[in-house]
Amino acid sequence: MALSRPRRIAVAALFVVPLLALTACAGADAAGEQGGATPLDAPAAEADGPLDLSGVCPETVVMQQDWQPEAEHGAMYSLVGTDHTVDAEAKSVTGSLVAQGVDTGVDVEVRPGGPNVNFQPVPSLMYLDDSILLGAVTTDAQITALADNPVVTVASQLTTSPQIVMWDPASHDGATTIEDAAAAGDPVVSSGDVFPRLLVSQGIIDDTQIDLSYEGTPQRFVSDPSTLQQGFATAEPYIYENEIPQWGKAVGYQLLADVGYSVYPEALTVRADKVEENADCLARLVPIMQQAQIDYLEEPQATNDLIVDLVDAYQTGWTYSQGVADFSVRTMQDLDLVTDDPESGVFGRIDPERMTEIVGTFAPILVDAGQIGSADIDPETLYTNEFIDDAISMGS
Length: 396
What we know:
Blueprint: H1 11-15, H2 17-31, E1 60-64, H3 74-78, E2 85-87, E3 92-99, E4 102-111, H4 122-128, E5 132-137, H5 139-144, E6 151-155, E7 163-167, H6 178-181, E8 188-189, H7 194-201, E9 210-211, H8 219-223, E10 228-232, H9 236-242, E11 252-255, E12 267-271, H10 279-298, H11 301-314, H12 322-334, H13 352-368
Parallel strand pairs: 1-4, 1-5, 8-9, 8-10
Antiparallel strand pairs: 2-3, 3-4, 5-12, 6-12, 7-10, 7-11
Helix pairs in contact: 2-11
């Protein structure tokens, strides 16, 4: 299966019980009766202009994320207008879709994934509820779902995966790479077997080191620092050093992208059977999503405030601090996790050669894992650049 994201579900329960008590009160106020909206202070988009989505998109554009609200999803949440309401029971936020400072004429609803949807994969959700227009799907998960719930990638948001393997430097002789840290044969603890199988195929670890028992808590890593563990460069290094007092120090890590995890993380996808009928909408919406990610990273504060408030309101037992949100943005920038497509110089564009490489690498792994029946997959069926605006780049 594709790497799931249990991350910090139980961190608060194990280590920060007083914080949960506080956020329970705050969440009740934030959720309220779906109130708290402020008037929308944004001019209407020019009629039939590139930012006018009325008449071409659904009245409410529904976007499905694959995990809890967090800064990596900033582009989606940045579109939610100040007139938004929060449905704490259904776990969603809805408001006017505001892009580049103007009201596009439709609403946007952003839904979180993970425990909020009983950990159902996003492609499955898109086929269960055809109101979902855009879903965030990482390429290996897209390949896994191809037979039953095919989706088509229409734009990249994060160019490089923030997923990491992390370790205690003191317990691994100051290792700076996964290969060095794993050389003594210590277990690599994860919640899914795709990236461990990738590491095995490259000779970085052997089969005996794969441990699929990760439950999203820091308990094992803290109590047994010989283990290596999955994580995200945009979260765990900050959390372990600053928010887990039982650890309270830096971790060593390497991006999985450095060792062949070449997938497009949380790319924007549409149901394969819905692309054509939504073409007019996507022709305007996809460029909006391209620019939204760029604009968010330049001015993240208001969106990060919303993300933190939503986590409190949803009350799933998972916490997300302002410190983590700010760290995530800095890390996406510092590690160049969000960049223009290196081949075309266009932000959000899918590189055909990279997609071919992804299929060639991960389809056999998924066959071996029993997740798909055949590695015979045409990479061109997985994406389209039809709706990309080639004039949009991070340097423009």
